[in-house]
Amino acid sequence: MKIDIDLHLHTNYSDGLESPEALVTRASRSGLRTIAVTDHDGIDGVQAAIDAGAGLDIRVIPGIEFSAEWIGGEAFGVEEAHTIHVLGYGIDLDSTTLTGKMREMLNNRAKRNEKLRRVFRKKDIDLSSSDLQEDSRGGFVGRRSFAAALVRKGYAASIEEAFSSGHLMGDPSVRAIRKEKINAEEAIRIIHAAGGKAFFA
């Protein structure tokens, strides 16, 4: 039986490598008829994928993948925080609840990125906004963007080395700066408010 559906794809507006248009084109060439674009914590690339799909007779389901936190389970009498991924399918991209949360999360990411830049400045490594935008992958600046900038500036030979190096992305002072995660229950509420269905990845 041929499978012609893939409901968990990322574009370069998240941690994928291809633009929305290139992703849909590759999906078409692979024989897929229905796909869902579920970028991490963002929806900016979804409409472009839908538009590209219309021209290639591929149904593109608008989606999102929230990196969420769930507090539950106990270890030694203390509740633990767990990172889980919450997928939303069939969301309304114009939902004010959803778009408001996207603005908030983008602002939080920008603050996190500025903290990372300050940590690297203390190590005498200056990473400008343009350095990070060079590998922004559709406007998304994340930890991989920092690693790529470190490679381009000669501090590491590869992305993998930048992440594994104890004095670069693997440094405890860098790793301590974490992105704010949405609460899992809130992620589900937002997906439902946007008319979507929520699933755990």
Textual characterization of the structure:
- With about 200 residues, the chain is α/β, with parallel strands linked by helices.
- It has one domain: TIM Barrel (Alpha-Beta Barrel), CATH 3.20.20.
- Helix content is about 40%, strand content about 20%.
- The chain has 8 helices and 6 strands, in the order βαβαββαααααβαβ.
- Strands 1, 2, 3, 4, 5 and 6 form a 6-stranded mixed beta sheet that branches.
- The longest helix has 27 residues.
- The chain is globular, with a radius of gyration of 18 Å.
- The two termini are about 25 Å apart.
- About 30% of the residues are buried.
What's this entry about, in short?
The chain has 201 residues and is of the alpha/beta class. Helix content is 41%, strand content 22%.
Annotate the secondary structure layout.
Elements: E1 5-9, H1 20-29, E2 34-37, H2 46-56, E3 59-75, E4 78-89, H3 96-122, H4 129-133, H5 143-152, H6 159-164, H7 172-175, E5 182-183, H8 184-193, E6 197-200
Parallel strand pairs: 1-2, 2-3, 3-5
Antiparallel strand pairs: 3-4, 4-6
* Structural class assignment: alpha/beta
Largest sheet: number of strands, sense, barrel closure: 6 strands, mixed
**Total helix count?**
8
Task: State the share of residues found in helices, binned by percent.
Answer: 40-55%
At the fold tier of CATH, the topology name is: TIM Barrel
Q: Briefly, what CATH class?
A: Alpha Beta
Order of helical and strand elements: EHEHEEHHHHHEHE
Percent strand equals 15-25%
Query: Which ranges are low-confidence, i.e. pLDDT below 50, for 5 or more consecutive residues?
Result: none
How many domains? 1
Mind telling me the C-alpha Rg? 18 Å
Shape: globular
Mean pLDDT: 91
